[in-house]
Predict the structure of Secondary thiamine-phosphate synthase enzyme.
Amino acid sequence: MIHVETLGEAAVGRVVHGRIDVATRGPGFTDVTAALRSFLRDNALGDGLLNAFVSHTTASLTVQENADPDVQTDLLDALDRLAPRNRPYVHSLEGTDDMPGHIKAMLSDTAVTIAVAAGRLRLGTWQALYLIEHRDGGRHRSIDLTYVGR
């Protein structure tokens, strides 16, 4: 489930803040592109930049291919090889999935900026914005949005 909320607009120029709430089901990719498009459509925006920031230390954002789900499988496998769970990490109070989640978030991005033209995301044909969940179990993640433009 994805919930989009517009939080306000600045008086100088066009700056709009919003938030996307995302429920995840464990490690994997959640496509949030439709929610970004909805945010832009609801705010009748022109040209500018949209910044998305995930305010969590064990989740991240990425612009990646949206055509072949095998890409996501391979990317998750690569992250698991770079930050395996079976390593004896010093930080272990929150479970065996926590420290690898921190490492995976550090290796990817917590913020992404995408160009907007005539109110539309300037993503490539095979691109989408994904929230990547790095922890086990269902979680609720928030993505803060800031649009700057006209």
In short: The chain has one domain: 2-149. The chain has a mean pLDDT of 92.
